[in-house]
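Lecture 7 notes. Example A: sequence first, then its structure tokens.
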Amino acid sequence: MSSISRRTFVRGVAATPLFAAAPRPTGAPLRFHAPATAPESVTVNWLEDKPGTNVGSTWGVPWPQGAVPADSPFALATPDGAAVPVQSWPIGYWPDGSLKWSAHALPADAPVHDTYVLRRTTGPAPAAAVTVSDRRDSIVIGTGLIDVVVGRRGEALIRSISRDDTVIARDLRLVSLRQTTADDGDERRTSRERLTSDVRKVTIEQRGPVRAVVKIEGTHRRRGRSWLPFIVRLYFYAGASHVRVVHTFLFDSDGQKEFIAGLGVRVGVPMRDEPYDRHIRISGDGDGLLREAVKGITGLRRDPGAAVRTAQLAGRKLPDPATWDQRVTTRLPLIPAWGDYTLAQLSSEGYTIRKRTKAGHGWIDVDAGRRSSGFGYVGGVSGGLGFGMRDFWQKYPAQLDIRGADTDEATATLWMWSPEAGPMDTRFYHDGLGQDTYPEQLEGLNITYEDYEPGFGTPYGVARTTELTFFALAATPSAPELAALARTVAAPPQIVAPPAHLAAAGAFGGLFKPVDRSAPDRAKIEDRLDFLFDYYRDQAESRHWYGFWNYGDVMHTPDVDRHVWRYDIGGYAWDNSELSPDLWLWFAYLRSGRADIFRFAEAMTRHTGEVDVYHLGQWAGLGTRHGVQHWADSAKQQRISTAVYRRIFYFLTADERVGDLMHELVDSDRTFLALDPLRKIRTEPYTPDPHALSIGLGTDWSGLAAAWLTEWERRGPKAAAAEKKLLATMRTIGRMPNGFVTGSGLYDIDTGEFAVAQKTVSVSHLSAMFGQVEICAELIALVDLPAFEAAWLQYCRLFNATREEQTAETGAHFGNLILKQGHSRLTAYAAARLGDAALAARAWREFNATDGYTDASPWRTTALTGPEVLNPVEDAPWVDTNTTALYGLAAIQNLALLPPA
């Protein structure tokens, strides 16, 4: 596929010549009718294999329109009919008020089965429910196993975690290290200051009985300086021994004059046992585990006895030293106590562990490995704290610290940015190259595909979310138990609804069906879909697409000469959701139920929703086009921030943080007052007018519509305004003589209406490729607005039609368009809605024999090794992300909408 130029796109949107009117077909299209009934039960299952450790799980289930009352009760049972407590709540509604999506929570003390049966009936309450007690300056949450005190003000987010009236941990707070120079030379003259969390607001979002959620907001503060606003959610499940922490920080710096030199979560752990009964555990590769005592009695010159040594290695309480070999007992004070440990994962390919007795003394190398799962334990036979960070090595540089384990209170710190890695460098990567004017910048776009503009390559306002877990343990667990906890942190057990139910309920516009290999042609397409996902999964590994800011994204285009992806060439580097790889992955999961696709898509959702979008500042609500750095390009647009890329993950998991991200976008129409997306190519003066904003009917409107739709169906705080604007834009698009073919319209922020334009033609190959297909399918299934549907079906029919057909209906042809394979799904949608067999046949021809991937594509990789490449890799230089995402979406949706070719 030829490279897609933003310049070509924006010129296409801006061009609006007038043509004579031509009538649009007015016949009422055929309509899908949602089933009037829903199944009485749904069998749900774990995403991966049945977990060894149940820590609770939350998941979403869709229901057909009009079939389930909004207040419907639910019950959960094992396959043999035994009742299991469950908490249920609505997270999405159909316009008629019926339930569209329900969310459910499984308690941590529930029996673990391969599957569960969710029924639409009343179920039992949990035996040990989560309790939430409000106090004047704190909130106390009890799970039945632990009690957690959350502070309403001050430095500590969690004041204490107790188990059986014993304080296991206290004063959990956030820490950041701020540095004002970047240390570019050999000589380092830097100073760092430590800032800690300052809690400003605490909200109880859910009170049980199975699941409770507390949201904490604040900043990092020291003396007069406040920076890095944070949003932290604490999750509690009935019967759980742990607290799940979802940590988000917002980068409120321009990244030029101050730098993050460390970012972490720190907690105190009281140490009550004798030093020889205190234990350190740190996870390595896989189930690998470092097992040590603060004061070790193994390997000594004198042997305390086999039973004593075995007990210490197992983490059990040792016999009275009076029973040991006295040659050891009398010399216990002469054995060093190792109080400090550090594991530093400074790349995706290696970590080191070292220890020392105490501050002021030398570090001793312990060992090294490749990829730590990021889990540790400090404590003793009378209790201790397990702590871990998800995606630890994937989001390097990360670090685990244990300090003072030989004292009355140890501290454990999970560093999301390791202090040993050096300052986080977010400065722009070049000096501008003399691109001071719009014409010069457009020339730059023509050579490196980067849309540069001074001052636009700033990280101010981006964010990052990290998941952490803290376990209050009654004693030092066995090695297998600790390995199981480490696996749980790395891949939290997730319950899911099966693909057949997701499809039958009409989820996400009905644009997918379960994988079907029953016919040879379909099996061929399925094999190619598998090939493409497997290739990207393996490329992430072999090309090392990891790191704090990068993990979750993929590259845009390969460099066929260097046998690398174009990581250093302008807009060809990080993809930043260009042409909807997020949707390709989620639709691939919805129809297959594959765990590896879910996890890949989940990481992308976490990344693209946080890192590629601004959450603070003048561009809040806009995302950044693809580039060498995720915030480098000057094109700040709705097409990247769009809620359509977050919706699927949200409804499958009820994740509150992703819900925040979509809610942030409800008022993002106001960003068009702050930034004109067509500023570089306008030929006439333009001043943004809140009552006549120039907004494209493609990538701009679809992004706004996705946010409004999501707020409306979630019944969010701004649902009424969102509904008003969504329906007003739909009505007025339907009134335009050429509907979506018009290209853009003048929008009134107050009324939500577009001014009805004259009959114009302005069509871009990009307009529908950033979620508009998916949003329009959902809207047409939700809202009975025939004129809007007719406008969308016209666009779907005509994009890949002949020039003569385009001209006859709209007054002009659409020019030289590309992405015909990706647009075959528009033809397929029109064919399905209209019951048009000729359109269906045309859609398959467009899919199989236009641009994009075809039978003539190689459909294989080539093994490359050194010295031709740096690392061994399976290379497919004919694969790029634009084509892959569109082939994947077209294949999935065509298979769902059309009969076999």
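Example B, a different protein, same format:
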Amino acid sequence: MTGQTTVRTAVRVHGRSAQRRALRAMLDALPAHGGRLLLAGEPGLGRTTLLQWAARSFRAGPVLHLGPGPDANAHLTAGQLLDTLRAAAVAAPVLVCVDDAHRWDAPARTELARAARLLSTADRVGLLLSVASDRAVGPEFARLPVVHLDPLAPARAAALLDDLTDGVAAPAVREQLLAEAEGNPALLVALVRRLSPAELRGHRPLPSPLAEAGVLAEAAGGVPTGPSAHARDLLLTVAAAGEASDGSDADAGLVRDALRRLRPAPGHGPGLGPDPGLGPDPGAEPLPGQLVLAGDRLRFRSPLVRRTVHATAAADRRRAVHRALADALDGGGHRLTALLHRSWSLDGPAPAPASADRLAATAADGAVPASHRLRATAYARAAELTADGARRAERYTAAAEQALLAGRPERARPLLAAARDRAAPDAVRGRAELLRGMTELRDGPVGDAHQSLLLAASLLAADDPAEAAAAALAAADAAWAAGDLPACLATLAPEPPLRAEHPSPGSDGPAAARTAAVVHDHRVGMRALLEGRLDRAGAPLGQVVRRSRTGDRPETLLRSAAAALLLGDVDAARSGGARALAAARQLGSDALVPQALEYLAYAELRAGRHPQARTHAEEGLRTALRAGQRNTAAHHRAVLALAASIEEEPDAVARHVAAALDTARRHGLAQAAALAQWAAARADLGRGRPFDAADRLGLLVLPGPGRGHFAVWRLAVPCFVEAAVLAGRDEDARRVLTDFADWAAFGADPQAAAQLARCHALLAPAEHADALYRHALDRHDEAGGDFERARTALLYGKWLRRRRRPREARGRLGTALAGFERCGAGVWAAQARDELRALGAAPRSPGAGAGTPARLGRLTPQQLRIARQVAEGATNREVALTLGVSTRTVDYHLRKVFAALGVRSRLELARMVGQAERAQEAQAAQDARRAGHQEKTGAQP
């Protein structure tokens, strides 16, 4: 052990909101009736902490703690235990906590479980038990309601780490601690306790391995073992097999074969069922409780226990198991896995050049079937066995690249740290810096990513100009994400010292040449676009799109989708994004899947297909979070906010905007921030709050140093013009139209020309507005897109109604309503219904019933509560205070109530609620009379 850091003991519960809600529900109900609950989770996930939280939170009566041992509680019968608990609950409800119930002996567990089942709700006893799920939960507890604990989410684990260390851990140390802990709170505490203050702050190297045997055993609550030597060998063999598969399950046949080689005695070992060709073995032991056999796969119930079994085994026995696994795998088409196990069977940590070379060469062989995770593990092991510093750095870098492709940036970062070697050639250092920059671009401050990628381009320029050009273009991507236009232009210099059009020696010929040409054309077109030379941007960006039509590399296809979006060719962007997604999935490149989904979502959004954009963004968000790509997740959050902003989901908009802005502000993502703010403003505009919308959007689109991202603000101009005109800020609206006209002329946004005509109509005098609205609708017919066309029809219909042209207005508003309903724009459809109602049309809401009670049944529970209180004469402020919400929320829901019920005043609402309640009372009375008649006559209901 090294010097220890003092860990704070009073640490608040992080995460576990769902589990705490379940516990709180039981505690809150105890004054009225009893309850039972079982907490289950692998060692270290915080079962004891949650029990303590529940005990501290319970204020209605005493708390009893029962435990195994010589005390009488553990040996009471179920009846005696029930009598004891009921007696304790006579004066007040009682909470009974039983931690680690699985440790009780079998008779005591049986009586405890019987008592739990016999408890009635009238007993006012809350029984809260916890069991470890690293073994099968005992059958005696199978009928109890269970609350499961999972590993902490990355953000929650990070918050716990900051609590433990007061936030002093160096960033690299922090990342490595979180990666090693894998969301297990107890393991995270043990890892922090192991480090000295100097190690924690990054002033001294971290011990290796960081999660050594003692730390793992501390977190797991001891060293797992089996009832016999055979069982212990089985546990170790499954654990060792998992080392080559990132801790996942193992093939039962492979384990059986390895055990035979390890123990060539008769029989096939414990719990593995019949031996092929030999028939069943009546002497087979049962499977150890830590393992699960599903079909032909074996796995540990707890990843922490698996790691602990492997780390705490005797070194010679662990090497023997790896040797047996290697022998069993030889010649079976698992060459890389066999070599990896063979390398782990070597005696001692001394470098082994021959083994390292074979391992690295096999990992680099694309013809050898292997996942990116397995290749990363093989490269890292080859690096450990390599004495030469430059080659070691090269292999650690290759391991990091494979970890990134597997979507594991938390694994790539420590590998890149291990690759640092000042003596390594520039090409090796440049490759490592490129990977570091790409990691930060997806999951870190994009300003840091920009600098790392520029350094990579410089280091790679002499030996690999094509890779240097790719690094420079990625640096431009980082500057783009940051909204740093000068840095973006500087990175895309017109005559860079990099010859991107020539592939490096040793590359794969035509494919590499095509990739280099795509990088070159994309750089040229992107710079022309940013310089405002729109006429010069089309040709090179078009070449990028065309060149990628015959390619199958996901990186090149992603460039194609990006170029198509810059050109406004949404169909090509969708095609490129879909092909990139298919290619990434086919290659198992988990890191590229979220980005492909991002381009697909943006393409659907630009085309006005919000439901499709939402579908892609929801999947993209899941995959981005799974791959540790917080920056990509922020972009998906922004798309989800934009999609929700046209629907009746203000809470969803607020949630996605807050999450996107949280990451955007910390990592400098100006583009994601601008999109999220646009979404919030569009939601304001849709809900009839033009002043709020104009204030938000003014910060994004008006000229000045605070203007939003250079690639986003133009897209938000039509919303700003509409909000500004409604808010009486016509001059502000006019200030942005010249730039927007240039953008529309370029043709990069298929909706821009129609939107420009709509903006001019909003600002035009009456004698010109009519023709401009008609022109805008004609342009919408050419561009397609239900949502934007419906918005123009809505504004035109409003304009016609206010000029007392009701017949024309009704037609335009009806078209708008149909368009909004078609694309799921609920909040905008409500505006169209309000306008039609003002004309006397009073359209039926979707799914409306004929009777008054049925119409009230269309309201949400919250809307119904608000409607009833308003009907009783409460003001909006009084309703807000009663329900614990804001007045703005009440305003919003009340407007939805009026629209859904087709009423125009509080008086009409009160009348309708009264009629509904009288109808319900009459129906209840009729039902009661019918039931009484049936009881008297014996008739069947």
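Note on Example B: The two ends are 76 Å apart (CA to CA). Strands lie at 35-41, 63-66, 94-98, 125-132, 146-148, 250-251, 291-294, 297-300.
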